[in-house]
Write a structure and sequence with these properties.
The structure is a single chain. The chain is an alpha/beta fold and about 400 residues long. It folds into 2 domains: about 100 residues, Urease, subunit C, domain 1 (Roll); about 280 residues, Metal-dependent hydrolases (TIM Barrel). It is about 35% helix and about 20% strand. Strands 1, 2, 3, 4, 5, 14, 15 and 16 form an 8-stranded mixed sheet that branches. Strands 6-7-8-9-10-11-12-13 form an 8-stranded parallel sheet. Helix 4 crosses helix 5, helix 5 runs parallel beside helix 6 and helix 11 crosses helix 12. It is globular, with a radius of gyration of 21 Å. The N terminus is likely disordered. The structure holds N-(iminomethyl)-L-glutamic acid and fe (iii) ion (FE). The site of fe (iii) ion (FE) has 4 residues, from loops. N-(iminomethyl)-L-glutamic acid binds next to helix 2.
Amino acid sequence: GADPTGGGCDAGRVSTVITDIGELVTNDPGRGDGALGLLRDAAVVIDGDAVAWVGPARRAPAADERYDAAGRAVLPGFVDSHAHLVFAGERAEEFAARMSGRPYTAGGIRTTVARTRAASDDDLRANLRRLVGEMARQGTTTVECKSGYGLTVEQEERCLRIAAETADEVTFLGAHVVPPEYAGDPAGYVRLVATEMLAACAPHARWIDVFCEDGAFDADQSREILTAGVRAGLTPRVHANQLGPGPGVRLAVELGAASADHCTHLTDADVDALASAGTVATLLPGVDFSTRQPYPDARRLIDAGVTVALATDCNPGSCYTSSMPFCIALAVRDLRMTPAEAVWAATAGGARALRRDDVGRLAPGARADVLVLDAPSHVHLAYRPGVPQVAAVWKAGRRVPA
Ligand code: NIG
Ligand code: FE
């Protein structure tokens, strides 16, 4: 092909053939069986940061390097489309109190805000990198990261700047909760978020999010912030219907949000609204697990034609898991998704929620985000819950160190 250095072997760009794949999840129904586009006895060729070739192992072209998958399953890396990773400290005691009966409330966010404000840039950066590394070793190759533990103009701007260094997708969540210094003036805080804070933060972010919930922001406040975000060039996503029924899902649909996240408490009208729109329902079963909430009804959403994504929501309060395989296992066992639906939702579904077509699938031209499972099929992700099953991971063509 066209090699700008003129040589046959560009030192900076290596091709790798992953061969003897027992089961390949392409998420390309035109290429293989079912919604996962499954191929047997397949190979994938990575060239630089992209997939160059996908097909039967016996016809695979040669490459600089060879990885023998020895009959294992290969998937696109997981797309974790919802996480809060710029923070300091932890809240293990709050979790323990919850497990002995105390309910989860949005108020716990303020504990992390105080710790985050007091942390140095380097401490926030190191914690973020630790978590993104933890995710990568578990097969996650695309990470969305929100702000929301700074809640001043300077602190939110700082959190987003740090997020953008490491995360694939960055979301401004100044409207996570009203910070203590605005406790008597929530309207003043909404105005700040929609004006000065947004102006400082928009250059670092692609998305704007609001926690639309009792104890956080109501429909009018959320609409004001999200529409200001749209005017600033950001696309909405919404924390909706997490702790009880509410207006979040319908607001997300009204504003053409990419995703309504949580969706634990839905009315028929909410399900109908999602089904008639392009808004993805992003389910976060790790949160419902870690807050002892009921689980969302994925079956009802899928049967109504709604696109469902799965994500971790990794954060120090409501859910401190970074494991997409754990979320897949919960989705299959407790949200009544099939293993194939859950794997699709954790890869292609996350890509839809982030409006990305270069990740969440394995086809020529896609980013070379590849997960080799230490198992013969994708079903094992839910079938063997809690068992490490990652054999190898490439992110944008680079091998993730084990
Ligand atoms: O997605 N719902 C709002 N935000 C997070 C929780 C953050 C926290 O408790 O620190 C969530 O669950
Ligand atoms: Fe969240």
